Amino acid sequence: MQDTPPSVPDFTQWPSFPFEGDLHVKQLDEPVPVEPPRRGEGHRECTACNAPDEAYIWVGERWRVRAMDRPTGLPMVLILESRSHLDLGDLPNLLAAELGVMTVRLERAIRSLDGVARVHVNRWGDGSAHLHMWFLARPYGRLQLRGTFLSLWDSILPPISEAQWRENLAMVAAWLAEFGGRPLAEPPRIQWQAPSSLTAQSASEAVEEPEEETASVIEAADEIPEAEAAEEPTTEEPANAGTPEEPEKVEEPRQTQVSS
Question: How far apart are CA 45 and CA 193, in angstroms?
Answer without folding.
Answer: 45
